[in-house]
Every structure is written in C-alpha cells, then in structure tokens.
Amino acid sequence: MITNKQPIIEFKNVRKEFGENLAIQDLSLAIQPGELFVLVGTSGSGKTTTLKMINQLITQTDGDILFNGKKLKEFDKQSLRLDIGYVLQQIALFPTMTVAQNISVIPDMKKMPKKQTAQIVDDLLTQVGIDPDTYRDRMPSELSGGEQQRIGIVRALAAKPPIVLFDEPFSALDPIVRTQLQDLVLNLHHTMHNTIVFVTHDMDEALKLGDRIGVMSHGKLLQVDTPDEIAQHPVNEFVENFFAGTVAKNIFETPISKLVKTGYVYEKPQTNDIGSQVEINDSLETAFQLLSKTSEIGVKGKNEIEGYLNRQQVIRYLSEVKR
Amino acid sequence: MTTLWNTFLDQRTQLLQALWEHLQISLTALLIAIVIAVPLAIWATHHKSVAEFLLQVTSVLQTIPSLALLGLLIPLVGIGSVPAIIALVIYALLPIFQNTYVGIDEIDPSLEEAADAFGMSRLRKLFKVEIPIALPVIISGIRTALVLIVGTATLAALIGAGGLGNFILLGIDQNDTSLIVIGAVTSALLAIILSALIKFLQTARLRTVIATVSVIIVGFVGVSGYQAISQPKENIVIAGKLGSEPDILIHMYKDLIEQNDKNVTVTLKPNFGTTSFLFNALKSKSIDIYPEFSGTVLESLVKKSGDTTDLSAHETYVKARDDLKNQFDMAYLKPMAYQNTFAIVVKKSFAKKYDLKSIGDLAAIKNQIKAGMTLEFINRTDGLKGINKKYGLNIKARSMQASLRYEALNRGNINVGDAYSTDSQLKQLNLVMLKDTKHVFPPYQGAPVMSEKLAASHPKIVQALNKLAGKISDEDMQEMNYEVNVKKVSAAKVARQYLTAHGLLRDAK
Which end of chain B has fewer beta carbons closer than 10 Å to its terminal beta carbon, N or C? Predict the structure, then answer.
C-alpha cells in the first residue's frame, strides 16, 4: 500500500496548542492518494483536531501541512475547502433546504450548470440507495437518522472532491444502520477512488474500513500501519490494549471480516480438507459450525473468495485476543 | 350598539384619515426599526461583548414610559409625526434586535461548522444558512414590535401626530364611549391584520413577498406624492386644545379664512393637547394659529409683569395682547364676546342641602368636602391655590381629567369640582356655580393667537378672523358645546350653522 507517489496530504512536525493545552505534539504523517486512512483514538486523543487541520477549520500552531506538495497556508481557504468534502458527526444538513438543495450546496458554489447538478444529485442518491423522485424535495426533518447521514455523505461527494473527511460520522447511529453505512463508504470508495480520511473511536470500524490506520493517544500518533500489522504487531501496550478492548462482548458475534482484516486468513488454502464457504459478514459462530465438519473453509467476499480460514488460525485468534 | 354604529357612520371620513395616519406612522417606524436593528444584531453576533451591551441599552430604552419619552423628544425635535416615529422606533428596537440576535446566535454550531467547511463566504453563509434558519425567530420579533408600535402609536395623538389615538383622546374628553371603542377596536384590528400579513409573507414565496412590499411602498409614495401635489396653495395649520369649544372655534376659523383668502387652505389639528403644548407648537412654528384665553396668557404663558388681580375683562385682554407682542412677537387678535372663566361647581341638590351660594360658604362644611379637579386648575394661582388663600380654605382636591371629573360629580364620588363657565355639562348635569365674591377667577376672553409675521403678511387672514370679534355670547357657546358634547353633532356642522345664521358666511358651501 505504501507507494512512492507524492502524498496528497502531508503533516510535517505539526503542533497545536489551545491556550495552555497541548492538543497535538509534533505530528508527522503522509496520506497517499486514493487511500482510505482511518485515525482512531479515544476522546481527547487529538484525532478530530488533526482532521480539522486538513480543511483548516483549525489552524496549526506550528509546522506545515501540505496538500499535493503545496503548503495549506498558501491556499485561499474557501477555494481549498471546495475541494475537500466533509461529513460531520452531527450530520448538520441545512434544515431550511430540501435534500436536493443540500446536496447542491457545493456544486452551486463551484458554479456548475444547474442541469449537471440535478443529474449528479439523482445519480448519487440512486447510488446510496435513496429514490431521487421520492426524496429529492423532502426536508431533512422528514428523514431518519440513517437517511440523513446518507444525504450528508452525498453532499460531501457531490462536487467530486479529491479528498473527503469523515468526522466520526456514524457514532450516533444504531449498529445496524452503522454497518450499512460502513459498507456504503467502502463501496463509494471503491467506485470513486478518492482519498478518504476517516476519524473514529471504534477500533472495529477502523479495522473494517481502513487501508491504513493511525492510532492516536494524548496528542501523539503512536502507530501507523495496515490493520493486520496493528493487530499482529502493536508497537506498545496501549495499542495492544486498545485493539483488545474492541473485542465483541460475545466473542461468537465477531465478524469474519475482522479476522480477514487482522491477518488470520490466508490467501491460499493450507490443507486439502476444504468444506463449504462462510460469508465475510457472517459471525465466528457460523465459522465454528462449519469448521466442526472440515478443518478449513473458504471466506467469501462480495464477489470472490477473500481467502481461507482454518482451525489453527481460529484458535490462534482466540488465544491472542485479550479480554 | 346603535349609538356605536351611528358614531361610526358619522365619523367614517375622520376614521379613514386617522387610520391612514396611524398606518403611516406605524409602518414607517417599523421599517426604520428593522433597518437599524437587524443589521446591528447580525453584526453583534460576531461581537459578543458588544451584543450584551446593546441588549442592555435596548432593554433600558424599553423601560422609559412612552409618555415621558414623547415629552423628552418635544424640546429636541418638536411635535408631530417625527417625535412619534422616533419614540416608536426606540420601542421597536428591543424585540427586533433581541430576536435577530438570539435567532442567529442559537443556530446549531455544527451547521455553522458545516457552512465553513464547505467553503462558504461569510455573506453567503449569512444569506443561505443563518438568515433562513433564524427567519421564524426574526419575524416573530418583528411581529411583536409591530403590535407594540400599533398600540403605542395611539399616544402619538398627544403630540399632534394624529392617528387613531385622536378618537380615544376625544372619546375620553367628551365622555363618549363609542369614540373610545371605535379608536381602540380599529387600532387592535390594524395590529392583528398587519401581524397576519407579516406571517403570510413569511411563508409566501420570495416573488410574492417582493410584490407585496413593492405595492405597499408604491402606495405610500403615491398617496404622499398626490397629497403634496394636490396642495399647491399655501397651507395654514390651525390647532385647538382638547375639547368641544376649541374644536368649534377652529372650524369657524377655517371657514372664515378659506372664504376670505382663496390662496390659502387650512389644515385643522383638533384636540391637539394642553395649553403649554400648543403654545410651544406655535413658537416652533409646528402650527400657525390657535385660540387662547386672555387670562391663560397672563397666568401661564407670559412672564408676570405688574399686578394682574382685579383687572376687568378688557384690561386682561389688553395686557395679554401687549405682553404677547413684547415678549414673543405674537399677534393676539380681537376677542369674542363670551367670557369664559373658572368656576367652582356643586350639584344643585348639594347646594340646596347646605345652602351654598358662594365659594366662602364652603368653609362651613369643610369636613364634608370631597373635591376633584383638573391638574391645571389645582396648580394655578388663579385656580385652587388662589381660592384656598383668599377664602382661607384648605381644600385638597384629587386631580382628575376634565370629563372624568364631571362623571364623578354626577355619581357623587366627589361633591365639589372645578369647571369652565361655558361647559355644556353645567346644563346637562344640573350643576350650579358658586359665586366668586373675592374675584379670584379672572374673566377670560378667547381670541386667536398667531405670529406677528404671519399677521403682517396675511392681512386677509386677520380680517377674516376679526369677523368673530365681539360675536358669540355665553349662551351661544354653552348651546354649541351642548350640541357637540351631548347631541353628538359634529363641530364642523355646529360652527357652520352659527356662521351662516349670523351672516358671517356668504353662502354655505
């Protein structure tokens, strides 16, 4: 995943103080174009501050942030922001505007032709599973929380910005809707190939979404790595505990996707005793049932086989996950 | 109910005029208040400490009693609609400022953050996000202000700005409930209708809003413009004190002047206020002419010079004329015949019971006296002060508005009151005047007062007004007051009847 391309966003020794309080100390980080980068940490870790420095809602006290190699300070703030999508935890749809008007906010500022904007609105609504004819002229207050955040995501994407920021967008939603929207983000990322920086306090969400994950605590970036590296080789006890703390209350409910992300699933079969397949969104419970019949099973993703899981790997996962 | 309806039919032209004035004053004040308060509040949302200060200031302004505020404005900007509008604007500032400020300040910070993050400029954010969200709160502030303005604007009548308050003041003065009800109900209806209109505009589409507002503005400009163009002649403003008598007199003035000088039109401002108020208006040229009593000139208006006690009616007039000329450069034209004077009155039955004939007789029943008198009378040296001094009495009177005092006398709430000798109520309520054996009350004669300059430049006006010199007897005046106050005939009609009957008008128009 790490390439030699020029990073789209680069933090260089960035420091942020709020009055007496040190929020970020000496943060350096490079985010690659097309990457889905997740910042994860507890509250007060500085992850949201880091995110908001990218679109300059918060200005750093010291250090430089580069956008495509050019210092953010040199950009006109308003035109810079037109190129950075933003999805908020509070959703924050404008209550006096219809769904279509909300989505058109940035295309209108970019002076896109009305017809083209209307087309984009309809296309994107369809893409996130909302019927344009029914919902186009509704007010935000008429929508459910999940529907509202779908519109929030569409609003951020409407002008096809090269980079989109997500600030804990799903933390206020119920688990079922959250899972749906996580899948939606993965889908959209897959089709649009834009860069996403996603902030969450939920390690499960980070593991599910992130191409790479940055773990933050007390204003410091502790580790930046792929999900399986973080799971297998945490740099310190904090990261290890943070990861362990995310284990589902009932271990049987752990999704298979988590084992895929954290590196317990092999790309190629290890034995010849391969039975039926388990869906990537199924739980460990299903895997146990299948593995009681054969020693190895296939893991089926959306369209293709993601890999193979055997009894030994499952036992290893269980033994390495701390309570 | 029939009286109410008849009064309404009788007064509908005046009502329409008053309604128009009321609407003009109210809407002008509201527009000015919006133009000041809304931008100020928007600016203040970015300056919290200033906002707190401004909220305090507007709250304090709100607590000034409206009557006091109007009084304070008179020396600064004179009388008429200007001080009325200023006062109304001051009252309207708080609700509009407060609601605009709160409406914008209480917008969910995440919406502000979203607008910033999407790259909106401050102006775009204001018009696309902040104002639309705060609009219902702002509009409700404007509606509060409007209701406040329309209600308070009735007080504008006190300082000569006209409006529906004229009906209420006149109604109180003439003890005519129908007039009060008509004034009050019309004012309330106006507030309700305007408030509903604003509510409608809030939900209407932008195009409708612009159309409606344009129609209102064009209407205003059109009517005002028409009024301006349609009055090419010179306009003379004649005002009169509160009450039927001055009202009748100024209508006579108008008829006589307009007959004599075709280049002049006369605008009347009846029920314009009290003595000092009218005199100040004359000094500041807000009005041109008003009828005044000779005794009042000496007692209240000019600086005292020499002894004024025991002067005859003619001597009083001459002294008043000379003092006005010397001290204020004003012309005091020839007086009419009737002599109006203060009087102490009691009910006939009361006089009989205690055998009261003169004021001195009151000493015998001083423990039974319950007196109610006008504030002006109580404080004049030729009023209650003089009576108490000269007759050795110690009457303590409650201050009452003139017609309420008659009402109290009639009901027996008080048994001694003051009066003018020409008041129609003396006849109507069966009251008797107690003789002023010690001549405390000077004999008053009425005559028009105006500036020397106006008198010199308009001999035709002087000539016209002098036709009334020596006319109108005590009985005539009492009769005419009775016609207006009791029989509810309009002052204009009563005035014209008199002039025609006495050959002062060549031909009735």
Answer: N
